[in-house]
Amino acid sequence: MSDVPPSPDPIGKAADTDTLHTRLPSRRLAERQSAPCTCGIPVPPAPRPDPIAIGWACSGAPLIFAALRLFGPVCGAKSGAGSMEMERARLTSFPREQATARVCMVASFATELLEMRSKEPSLHVLLIPGNPGIAAFYKDFVEALYENLGGQASVTAIGHISHSQKDAEHGRLFSLHEQIDHKVDFIEQELEHSEQPIVLVGHSIGAYIGLEIFKRLQTKIKIFVGLYPFLTLNKNSVKQSAIGYIARSSLLSKGVSSFVSLLGSLNASATRGIVRRLLGPSWSVTAVDAACNHLLRYHTMRNVLFMAMTEFQKLTEEPDWAFIRARQNEIALLFGVDDHWGPLFHLEEVSKRAPRVALSVETEGHTHGYCCTEAGSFWVADYVANLIKTQMLRNN
């Protein structure tokens, strides 16, 4: 990581909350968070889409729309040109150790894992993905995090059930609650007898899942880190309203999933060309491969939308502030500037309710879908690694 200039901030270039309002005045902040996407993707003009929006959902846009669920402004997933060139040069000059993909059975469910195993680990980092919960999207992040921790920690990304390349569960749909149970089962099955402390990292809805796991397994989890956390609904978000509308409709969900499956059934080069054209040049090879090989499956997209429906039902509730306050010294959250899944007014609410939670704001423009670009993956890996080192030293 020598090509990245050192930062005096122990957790990278993220802005702390003391400088938040000097960077973005509250009025401007409200305008930016309520503004519609300007990245060229058609967005319904009102929280409840009209028949034209329904027609749009059944046309060629559902691929991007589904990806929106996890990655926010897909076409806005960007990095500065200099930063991107630097990351490409680093990839070329310093090839990293590669993560290993495998499938294991967790409580009888086939589970895709992406792993980096340390020979002498001092801790185990477990990554909970967002939705889509495809571990392969996080390959660059997992490898960079392992490297940044000096190979002294094992790193595992666990996929959601049936967000997978193969339909091992024969079309069954899994709710948010079932996905939480699945992750608890994994820890109890695979890490029960591990002597290393567990650092839990959750991205987007994975942050909500991670907090629920933390509540159930408080003696096993050393630190919890939420990346661009989706912890409660944003009533100002047109995208969330539109996605929720599609997810609640069995007909629309099946239509979107069928179209996505059709794209996935094309010649591999044709599928890749379409995905690259729709998602834009900023997406990494890793992310495009994950989209082509895992996301463009009927069973995967049906599960993405079904899980989204159950998320929107559950996240009408307030976060468990009592638990967050009780464990606030062991919790860190990273927010983005223009993230409708985890807007900055949610950060302000956390700051009021649990003031000792370590709160940071990423201002580099990597967006909610950080794992879809090399620069975003490397930057967030730097942030998490430095945070882990700081927190572990403080706790010890």
Automatic annotation (TrEMBL):
Key words, A-Z: Hydrolase, Lipid droplet
What residues form the membrane-spanning segments?
none
Please list the GO terms describing molecular function. Answer: lipase activity
Query: Which InterPro entries has this protein been placed in?
Result: AB_hydrolase_fold, LDAH
GO BP terms: namely: lipid storage
- Where does the record place it? Lipid droplet
A GO cellular-component term linked to this record: lipid droplet
Give the family from UniProt. Answer: Belongs to the AB hydrolase superfamily. LDAH family.
Protein name, please?
Answer: AB hydrolase-1 domain-containing protein
